[in-house]
Design brief:
The complex is a heterodimer of chains A (363) and B (421).
Chain A: E1 7-9, H1 49-64, E2 69-73, H2 77-82, E3 94-96, H3 102-115, E4 122-128, H4 129-134, H5 137-145, E5 151-156, H6 197-203, E6 208-213, H7 217-228, E7 234-239, H8 243-246, H9 253-263, E8 269-272, E9 275-279, H10 288-292, H11 308-325, E10 356-358
Parallel strand pairs in A: 2-3, 2-4, 4-5, 5-7, 6-7
Antiparallel strand pairs in A: 1-10, 6-8, 8-9
Chain B: E1 2-6, H1 7-17, E2 22-25, H2 32-43, E3 51-54, H3 58-70, E4 75-79, H4 81-86, H5 88-97, E5 102-107, H6 121-125, E6 132-135, H7 139-156, E7 160-165, E8 173-177, H8 181-187, E9 204-205, H9 214-243, E10 251-254, E11 261-265, H10 269-282, E12 287-292, E13 294-296, H11 300-307, E14 312-317, H12 327-337, E15 346-351, H13 361-372, E16 379-381, H14 386-398, H15 405-413, H16 415-418
Parallel strand pairs in B: 2-3, 2-4, 4-5, 5-7, 6-7, 11-12, 11-14, 14-15, 15-16
Antiparallel strand pairs in B: 1-8, 6-13, 10-12
Helix pairs in contact in B: 1-2, 1-7, 3-5, 7-9, 10-13, 11-12, 14-15
The chains are: A alpha/beta (363), B alpha/beta (421).
Chain lengths: 363, 421
């Protein structure tokens, strides 16, 4: 389930002001009793989407399990910035083994707990997109098909950031990485490649697959909560902008994540047993150009003039997501009931005028 | 109880008697019968509580074992050959993290060319990965070594692989004494993990370590193996007291008294070597055998002490260190280096039995005759068909596009070479 609908007033932003909400509607991060699973002092970059996503996800998982949680972590930024010897940010039992085996290590932890009759303790596996959709994919698929009792969370920043921004199987078309440079007649990553790990996860017909972004953190918390209430293999794919790799401003991490969702670039949905059960509708659609422009990895698409043909291909991909997941269908079903008429479809940015905006409630 | 058992079945029962809590396995010949038997024991409920995880690769098998062991469960897996190589990264990880996983390696050749038969290329390729390596001579010893391996691994918090020759042992039916559960429970105490993932006392395992401490952490892996040099004989002595069998230990000397020529070997070939030595002894030839049960840690001092009075040492190896010779010989040379002041024995390397080539008594007799007569080259390939090799070398010289070696050679030795029927 998505986060419950909240109606609120905010100027120029979709952000939820916790202080305006009833206590039971507030984000877990607003609570002083939150577990601070990744505590301060780590070495993540300013504006790191992965650090933010992991903090919300794991604190939510800790709350859902009453602190009975073990994490298996793949090699990658999250592992490196959180455990510079001899310091550790982790306030839960945490094991890092290798780059490509976090799902299998998590399986081993879950198997041990089962053998010991300690299934009150739950298991989270986590890694970046490289560790998840590329090098760890066989282990991930194995964990899925066995339906092992693991929630695996992929923090997707769309390239190998820890090694210096190389292309991964999650890198979008046209994006500049150090191995898909902005050079030649078709600069950046090639069209027609890459994979959707959430859709492949769904093909395993596991109990729960969901996507989320760091723009909607209450939604992320709610999805973790949902996942932890279930048993078996669960997969959560979180869209986490990377200021370093994407060449975006640190302050724009959340804005870019929101634009990814609002443009249809990154569909936010939930699936049970292989079927989509809920989507977070686009509230006010923006053209992909709005999403691409603040990122240096797409700068070549706008120099010297906008490469309209390439941008149109990216827009076509977003439009396909919109059709496929019905990201705009909610309009007819009351998803976007709080958006004032005439400002919804095609608007480029949240309104500056203190309008009433909100999540809407599922139809 | 004495029973006629396949080696794999004997090992499976030994492992089950040690009450593993997590078994993860991926099939690869010739290890499969072991995990098949264990799967049956878990599925039927005879082995409980135990989780049997059918994984999608050997890399995953070792990774599941790592996760389970770090959660305080006794973890076991088995593999061979390509499977061992496929888990290589995780092998280093298990030892680096100090996780006492026990694994059977049903020794098999490494491709290419693909070959399912026995040699020691697989285990030898991982000799430096930080795992203790014990080699079984017989099915009884394979069974016994598994009981000792769990005790050893958990005492040191370091992983142990028990190596047994694929097919030669794993698929051979022999008389084996299988101990009862009560005796094994007394010998193998419950697992007390040195480190464990526990929400009540959260620890970070697997943190990044920079130049300021990496060497020290790595040294600890070495320190554990040095301690194993003391512990392995002690556990073997305890084992003998508990079960009445002389099994395990660092070395297995055989007819070493006054031996001028000593064959050093590992694993099941020791049986053939001992038979050959018995015959030669009857003919008055002063030969002996030194079996290496523990290859990692390598018992340098004990090997030196055992060999220093010999005139010649023949290291019989089922693995080839391509470009130099034999991995075991290199270690034996190191053991003998410090003895050189008093006149070290001459040490020759014999590469034998690669990819399942039989090592026969006849070949060993001829080999030892050459050794005793000091005619043995520093590096010998036992029963190598030089005709076949030279023909392929000629083809390579004659044409830069002579094609794949294996196919060319098979044409020379196989049905094609035999001509039309």
């Amino acid at each position: 389930m998505r986060a419950p609908a909240i109606r609120y007033y905010q100027t120029g932003s979709f952000a939820v002001g916790n202080r305006l909400l009833d206590p039971d509607q507030r984000a877990l991060q607003a609570e002083e009793q939150r577990s601070n699973t990744i505590t301060c002092g780590h070495r993540a970059c300013q504006g790191c989407g992965e650090a933010l996503g992991a903090r919300y996800a794991l604190d939510a998982a800790m709350r859902a399990t009453g602190g009975r949680l073990i994490a298996a972590n793949a090699t990658g930024c999250l592992e490196v910035f959180s455990t510079p010897y001899p310091e550790s940010s982790w306030q839960l039992p945490w094991l890092h083994s290798l780059f490509g085996n976090a799902p299998a290590v998590a399986t081993g932890i879950a198997a041990a707990l089962r053998a010991k009759g300690r299934e009150d303790i739950r298991v989270v596996g986590q890694g970046g997109d490289g560790g998840t959709v590329d090098i760890g994919f066989a282990c991930l698929s194995g964990m899925f098909e066995r339906n092992d009792d693991v929630l695996y969370i992929c923090y997707d920043n769309e390239a190998y950031m820890n090694t210096g921004v190389q292309r991964s199987g999650a890198t979008p078309p046209a994006a500049r990485t150090t191995t898909t440079p902005a050079a030649g007649p078709e600069p950046g990553n090639v069209f027609g490649q890459g994979k959707s790990a959430p859709l492949i996860a769904m093909a395993h017909e596991i109990p729960y697959v969901a996507t989320a972004t760091v723009a909607e953190l209450r939604d992320l918390e709610a999805k973790v909560q949902t996942a932890m209430a279930l048993r078996g293999a669960r997969y959560l794919h979180v869209f986490v902008p990377c200021p370093l790799g994407w060449g975006s401003a640190s302050k724009d991490t959340i804005r870019i994540a929101r634009l990814a969702k609002e443009s249809g670039i990154f569909p936010v949905f939930e699936a049970r047993d292989g079927e989509v059960t809920d989507v977070s509708p686009i509230r006010r659609q923006v053209p992909v150009e709005e999403y691409l422009r603040p990122q240096q990895r797409f700068a070549h698409l706008f120099k010297p003039e906008p490469h309209t043909e390439v941008i149109a291909r990216i827009q076509a991909g977003a439009d396909r997501n919109i059709r496929r997941f019905g990201l705009l269908d909610g309009r007819g079903r009351g998803h976007d009931e709080h958006t004032p008429a005439g400002r919804g479809h095609g608007a480029h940015a949240p309104g500056p005028d203190g309008e009433r905006v909100g999540e809407g409630s599922p139809a | 109880m004495l029973r006629q058992l396949e080696g794999s079945r004997a090992v499976a029962e030994a492992v089950a008697l040690c009450r593993p809590e997590v078994i993860c396995a991926y099939p690869i010949s010739p290890q499969t019968h072991i995990v098949e038997a264990l799967a049956g024991l878990v599925k039927s409920g005879e082995l409980a509580p135990c989780e049997f995880v059918n994984v999608e690769s050997e890399f995953a098998a070792m990774s599941v074992a790592i996760g389970a062991s770090a959660t305080g469960a006794r973890a076991y897996t088995a593999t061979a050959s390509q499977g061992l190589l496929y888990m290589a990264e995780a092998l280093y990880n298990a030892s680096g993290l100090g996780l006492p996983v026990v694994m059977t390696v049903a020794n098999r050749a490494i491709g290419a060319p693909i070959n399912i038969w026995n040699d020691h290329s697989d285990a030898m390729s991982q000799r430096d990965c930080g795992w203790i390596q014990l080699y079984a001579e017989s099915n009884q010893e394979a069974l016994d070594l598994h009981l000792q391996a769990f005790v050893l691994a958990e005492a040191l918090s370091t992983p142990v692989m028990v190596c047994m020759d694929g097919f030669i042992l794993t698929h051979a039916v022999e008389r084996v004494d299988v101990p009862d559960q009560e005796a094994v429970d007394a010998f193998v105490p419950p697992f007390q993990p040195r480190q464990v993932l526990d929400p009540d006392e959260p620890v970070t395992i697997g943190a990044m370590v920079g130049p300021e401490a990496f060497m020290e952490v790595r040294y600890l892996a070495h320190a554990k193996q040095l301690r194993a040099l003391e512990l392995i004989p002690r556990i073997a002595a305890d084992f003998q007291e508990a079960f009445g069998r002389d099994s395990g230990g660092l070395l297995r000397p055989y007819r070493m008294e006054d031996a001028e020529t000593v064959v050093v070997a590992l694993g099941s070939v020791l049986g053939t070597v001992k038979d050959t030595v018995d015959e030669l002894r009857e003919e008055g030839v002063r030969v002996g055998v030194l079996g290496l049960t523990s290859f990692r840690p390598f018992p340098l001092a004990a090997v030196r002490e055992a060999l220093v009075r010999a005139r010649r040492v023949v290291v019989l190896e089922k693995a080839l260190a391509v470009g130099i010779g034999g991995p075991v010989s290199a270690n034996v040379h190191m053991a003998l280096a410090e003895a050189s002041a008093g006149g070290a024995p001459r040490c020759c390397t014999v590469i034998a039995g690669l990819g399942g080539r039989p090592i026969t008594k006849a070949s060993l007799r001829a080999l030892l005759a050459d050794a005793v007569a000091d005619r043995l080259e520093p590096l010998t390939f036992l029963d190598l068909d030089w005709g076949v090799v030279n023909r392929e070398l000629e083809r390579m010289g004659a044409s830069p596009t002579s094609g794949p070696h294996a196919e060319n050679i098979l044409r020379d030795v196989g049905p094609v070479a035999a001509g039309p029927v």
